[in-house]
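Title: Request for sanity check on UspA prediction

Description:
We are preparing a figure and want to confirm that the structure record we downloaded matches what your pipeline produces today. Could someone re-run it with the sequence below and paste the raw C-alpha cells into this thread? We only need the C-alpha cell string, no images.
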Amino acid sequence: MNFGGGQGRPRYSRDMTESSFGQTGAAAGFRKIVVALDFSPASEQALTLARTQFPGAQLRIVHVTDARVVTTPDLMGGVTPVSDPALLQTLEHADASRLDRRWQAGEEVEQLVGDPVTGIVDAAERWGADLIVMGTHHQGALEHFFMGSTAEKVLARSAVPVLAVPVSGRR
C-alpha cells in the first residue's frame, strides 16, 4: 500500500500510480466506481473528485448506515442490540433522505445497513467496481488507536483499488 501524497492531495493504494491520473474517466481504465459516502466533508470531497476526475465512468454512491450505533458492548467482547429497533429504522430513513439530495442523473445509489467496512468492500466486489473512492477523516490518536480508520480497513480488505481522499487543507 502506498499512503503517499501531501496536504490536500489524494492518497492511493494498490497498483495505482501518478500516471494513472494522467487520463480521466473511462479512458484511465476505471469504468465502474464506487464512491463511499458518509456525509462527512471528506466523503463529499471524494464524491466531487470522482465526478470531476472520472467523467466517463459509471458511479455508484454507496452509503452504509452503521448498525453499531444502536448496540452496546457486552461483557463477552461482543455487542448487544439496543432494545428499540425503531432507532435504526429512523437512522435509515434519515440517511435515505440525505442520499436523495446527493446523487445526480446517471448515477446509482445503494444504501446498506451494517458494518461500513464490510458494506463498502462487499458492494464494490458484488457490483464489479474498478475503483473505490472514499474520504478520510482526521482522528485523534486515541480514537485512531481504539477504532482505526474505516479507509485503512477498506484498503486492507479490498481486492479493488482504493483512492482515499483527505479533506483539503488537512494532513
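Thanks, this matches our download. The longest strand covers residues 58-66.
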